[in-house]
Automatic annotation (TrEMBL):
InterPro entries: Helicase_ATP-bd, P-loop_NTPase, Restrct_endonuc_type1_HsdR_N, Restrct_endonuc_typeI_HsdR, SWI2_SNF2, Type-I_R_enzyme_R_subunit
Organism of provenance: Limnospira platensis (Arthrospira platensis)
Any one of the GO BP annotations: DNA restriction-modification system
Enzyme Commission identifier(s): 3.1.21.3
Protein family (similarity comment): Belongs to the HsdR family.
Root EC class: hydrolase
Name of the protein described by the UniProt record: Type I restriction enzyme endonuclease subunit
GO molecular function, one term: type I site-specific deoxyribonuclease activity
Domain Helicase ATP-binding positions: 293-438
Assembly mode: The type I restriction/modification system is composed of three polypeptides R, M and S.
C-alpha cells in the first residue's frame, strides 16, 4: 500500500513532504465499524492481527514467543517464570520502572538454569524492522473496575500503544477522558503489562491526536495531545490518513524508540512532527555532506527556524544525541549561551554522557573533555569555545569530523568565533537553531542566519504554533481602519502588500502618527495599569522593518 511518496532527497524520512489524502466517505459509521476498518488498514500495512488475544492470561505466552524469536533462545517453563518475576513483570514495578525498561534498561542479563548468561533484548533499537508489530482489540482487564480497551498495538508482545476510538460527531475529548479513567481503574493494576504503554492515540475519525504516557496525567493535560503533520506543518487529522502515515510500521517504531526522550524527571516526552522533521533533516544533511565532502562549506550545514517556546532545545538535544551515533563523527559540540548551562537540558546531557558538560570558566576543562575518547558529546559556551581556539593553535580535534549544533544562533555568534571556527576546524558541519532568524531585509548589510549556517532546513513559525495551541494564547483587538488608508489596511494579497507604493502608504506620516496616538491613549488601559496598585503588564511593539521602527520612534518622541 503506497499512499504517499517520501521526499526526493531521502527515503528514510518519516515526516513526509508529499502526501495524497485518501478519499473519505460521508456515510454513517458506527464505532465498531470504524474499529474494524482501522484494524483492516493496519493489517494491510503489515500488522499481524491476533483476534483471540483478549485477556491477560493469553498475553504472556505471546510475549514469550516473540522474545524467543527476537533473541534466538528458548526459555524452559521455570526459566520463563523466573524471567517474568525478576524482570519483565517484577512485583512493585511502576509505570516509571516499565518506561525505563523500554528506553534505558531494555537489555537484561539473564542467567539460564545451566549457568550461561545471555543478554535478553525486549526491543531491537538498532534494526527496527526486526521488532514484531501486532494488533489486538477488545482486551479485557480488571483493576478497581473491569475495562475493555478498543485497540492495542503490541511490539514484541508488549502493549506499547493504546488507541481509543469514538464515532464521528462525538468530541475527541471523550476518548481522552476514557483513557484517563482506564489509567486509574485498570491499566496499572498489579501484574498488568499495560504499564508498558508508551503512547496513546485518540480519534473520532475526523480528528486524531497522539500523546505520551507522561506519568502525571490529569484532565487538564488534553492540551498536551498532538496532531501528526507533514513537513510543511499541514496537519494530518483524519484517521485514515493518520493510519497511512503515523501507523506505517517504521514510522511508529521510530516515534516509539528513536524520537522519544525519557527525561531526568522521569517524564516521557514524545517529539512533535516538526521536531522530528528538523532532526531528520539535520541527520540527512550530515550524511549527505559527508558523502559529498562538503564539510566547512555552507552546503554542509543549515538552520532550523522554530519559534520561541516550541521546544527547540529538546530538538537540538535529540539531533546532537543521534549525530553521536553516526560512525564517521568523532565529536558533537552543543553550543549554548553562558546562562543556559544551568538548564535542565544540561542534566540530560550529563546523564547521557557524564563528562559532557563543563561549567567552569576555564578552557582547561574543555580541553580535557576533548581528549577523552569515550566522550562523543561536548556541551560548551561560544565564549569558551572561542577562547580555546585562540589559545590552542594545534589540537587533534581540529582535523577530526565534528558537528556543531548552536542551540540559539543569535547575531552574537556570527563574529570572531565563526572566523576562528572556519580557520581552525578542517572537517565540520554546523547547524543553528533560532526563533528569530536574520533575513537580508533586516540584516542592515551584515551577515544573515543563512549566510553563516546554510540554508533553512525546516521551519515552524509563530502562526503554526498559535494554530496548534503550543504557545501562550494571543488576545487580538482589531481597531477600525483609518478611512484614508482603508484599501491598503484590508489588503490580503502578500504581493500587493510588498509593492513599493503600498509599503510607502503603510509608512505614511499621518497613519503612523494616528497609530502612535492610539497606543499612547490606550496603553494604560490595555496593559491593566488603571487598577489601584496594579503594576500592569509589559508590552512589545512589533513593526515590519527597521525603517518602520525608526519612524514610529520619532512619532512617539514628538507626541
Amino acid at each position: 500500500m503506497t499512499h504517499y511518496n517520501t521526499i526526493a532527497e531521502s527515503n528514510n524520512f518519516i515526516i513526509l513532504d508529499q502526501y495524497t489524502k485518501i478519499p473519505q466517505s460521508d456515510s454513517y459509521q458506527s464505532e465498531s465499524d470504524l474499529q474494524r476498518e482501522f484494524i483492516r488498514d493496519l493489517v494491510n500495512q503489515g500488522y499481524h492481527y491476533l483476534p483471540k488475544l483478549t485477556n491477560p492470561q493469553a498475553m504472556l505466552p505471546n510475549v514469550r514467543e516473540q522474545l524467543h524469536t527476537l533473541n534466538h533462545v528458548q526459555f524452559t517453563d521455570s526459566e520463563w517464570q523466573r524471567f517474568v518475576e525478576t524482570f519483565l513483570d517484577k512485583p512493585g514495578d511502576s509505570i516509571i520502572d516499565k518506561t525505563r525498561k523500554i528506553h534505558e534498561n531494555y537489555i537484561h542479563d539473564f542467567v539460564f538454569d545451566d549457568g550461561r548468561i545471555q543478554n535478553i533484548y525486549l526491543l531491537d533499537k538498532k534494526n527496527l524492522p526486526r521488532n514484531k508489530v501486532q494488533v489486538i482489540e477488545q482486551f479485557e482487564q480488571k483493576g478497581t473496575q473491569a475495562n475493555r480497551y478498543d485497540v492495542t498495538i503490541l511490539v514484541n508482545g508488549l502493549p506499547l500503544v493504546q488507541i481509543e476510538l469514538k464515532k464521528r460527531g462525538v468530541a475527541i475529548r471523550e476518548a481522552f477522558n476514557q483513557i484517563h479513567r482506564y489509567s486509574k481503574e485498570s491499566f496499572n493494576a498489579e501484574h498488568s503489562l499495560y504499564k508498558y504503554l508508551q503512547l496513546f492515540v485518540i480519534s473520532n475519525r475526523t480528528n486524531t491526536r497522539y500523546f505520551a504516557n507522561t506519568t502525571q496525567r490529569n484532565k487538564n493535560s488534553f492540551d498536551f495531545t498532538m496532531h501528526w503533520a507533514k513537513a510543511d506543518n499541514t496537519l494530518i487529522k483524519d484517521l485514515k490518513d493518520f493510519t497511512a502515515t503515523f501507523f506505517e510500521k517504521n514510522t511508529l517504531l521510530s516515534v516509539l524508540l528513536k524520537y522519544s526522550v525519557f527525561d531526568v524527571n522521569n517524564t516521557l516526552l514524545v517529539m512533535r512532527p516538526y521536531q522530528i522533521a528538523a532532526t531528520e533533516r539535520i541527520l540527512w544533511k550530515i550524511n549527505s555532506a559527508y558523502q559529498a565532502k562538503h564539510w566547512i562549506r555552507l552546503e554542509g550545514g543549515g538552520c532550523i527556524w522554530h519559534t520561541t517556546g516550541s521546544g527547540k532545545t529538546l530538538t537540538s538535544f535529540k539531533a546532537a544525541r543521534l549525530a553521536t551515533e553516526l560512525d564517521f563523527i568523532d565529536k558533537v559540540f552543543f553550543v549554548v549561551d553562558r546562562k543556559d548551562l544551568d538548564y535542565q537540558t544540561m542534566k540530560e546531557y550529563q546523564r547521557f554522557s557524564p563528562d559532557s558538560v563543563n561549567g567552569s570558566d576555564s578552557t582547561a576543562g574543555l580541553k580535557r573533555n576533548l581528549e577523552k575518547d569515550d566522550n562523543k558529546i561536548i556541551v560548551t559556551t561560544i565564549d569558551k569555545l572561542n577562547n580555546l581556539m585562540k589559545t590552542e593553535s594545534d589540537l587533534a580535534i581540529y582535523k577530526k569530523q565534528v558537528v556543531f549544533i548552536f542551540d540559539e544562533c543569535h547575531r552574537s555568534q556570527f563574529g570572531e568565533a565563526q572566523k576562528n571556527l572556519r580557520k581552525k576546524f578542517k572537517r565540520f558541519y554546523q547547524f543553528g537553531f533560532t526563533g528569530t532568524p536574520i533575513f537580508p531585509q533586516n540584516a542592515l548589510g551584515a551577515d544573515t542566519t543563512a549566510s553563516v549556517f546554510g540554508r533553512e532546513l525546516h521551519s515552524y513559525v509563530i502562526t503554526d504554533a498559535i494554530r496548534d495551541e503550543k504557545v501562550l494564547k494571543f488576545k487580538v483587538d482589531y481597531n477600525d481602519v483609518r478611512p484614508k488608508f482603508k484599501a491598503i489596511e484590508t489588503e490580503q494579497d502578500q504581493q500587493k502588500l510588498s509593492a513599493a507604493e503600498n509599503k510607502q502608504a503603510l509608512l505614511h506620516p499621518d497613519r503612523i502618527r494616528e497609530i502612535a496616538q492610539y497606543i499612547l491613549s490606550n496603553f494604560r488601559q490595555k496593559t491593566h495599569r488603571l487598577q489601584a496598585g496594579g503594576k500592569g503588564f509589559n508590552a512589545l511593539f512589533a513593526v515590519s522593518s527597521v525603517d518602520a521602527a525608526k519612524l514610529y520612534y520619532e512619532a512617539f518622541k514628538q507626541l
